[in-house]
Write a structure and sequence with these properties.
The protein is an alpha+beta fold. Helices cover 61% and strands 14% of the residues.
Length: 181
């Protein structure tokens, strides 16, 4: 897994440098996110990476799945990825590209983990509060983990802010255990 991450990061960094050079970072971002969906189709990935299928047939299948307005440089990258049979990495390359874009744009990535799905008002309020904490724009992702019982855990960069009921109960248990000795 670490090797896949490193390889995907290298592809994303190279693509990001090309996009910066050409002034097409936003286009790359949008198109890579669209192409990343191809990696989610396991059957398509198997067909595109099947060594029994001639390269030209696989190439035409991949390029046929793209929009007409796909950047030529992105098409070249996709052909390289296809030649090296790394199609399964497309989603990770897109995520790494997004990370580089966010870093350049000064956007902090954060993840809010809650026990239940948050309402639109709760999402808006949490977004505002996290942006105040971070001191800038935040791209907030949401996950549900029923084991939290209630409240929210927030991962902001390398910090974990645990406002969950489970976290509070664990802290209380640790405090009581420390006092017992």
């Amino acid at each position: 897994m670490a090797r896949v991450m490193t390889t995907a990061r290298r592809y994303a960094e190279a693509a990001f440098q090309i996009a910066q050079r050409d002034g097409t970072v936003e286009q790359w971002l949008a198109q890579l996110e669209g192409v990343g969906g191809l990696a989610g189709d396991a059957q398509l990935v198997r067909r595109l990476e099947d060594p029994a299928v001639p390269y030209d047939v696989r190439r035409e299948a991949l390029l046929g799945a793209l929009d007409r307005d796909t950047l030529p440089q992105l098409r070249n990258l996709l052909e390289l990825i296809l030649q090296r049979r790394r199609v399964e990495m497309l989603g990770q390359i897109g995520r790494e590209f997004r990370r580089l874009y966010n870093r350049q744009a000064g956007i902090t990535e954060a993840t809010a983990i809650s026990a239940t799905e948050l309402s639109a008002d709760e999402v808006r309020l949490l977004q505002e509060r996290v942006e105040r904490m971070a001191g800038g724009r935040v791209e907030l992702h949401f996950q549900v983990d029923e084991s939290l019982l209630g409240g929210v855990q927030l991962r902001l960069g390398d910090r974990l802010i645990d406002g969950s009921v489970r976290g509070r109960l664990e802290r209380l248990r640790n405090e009581l255990a420390a006092r017992a000795y």
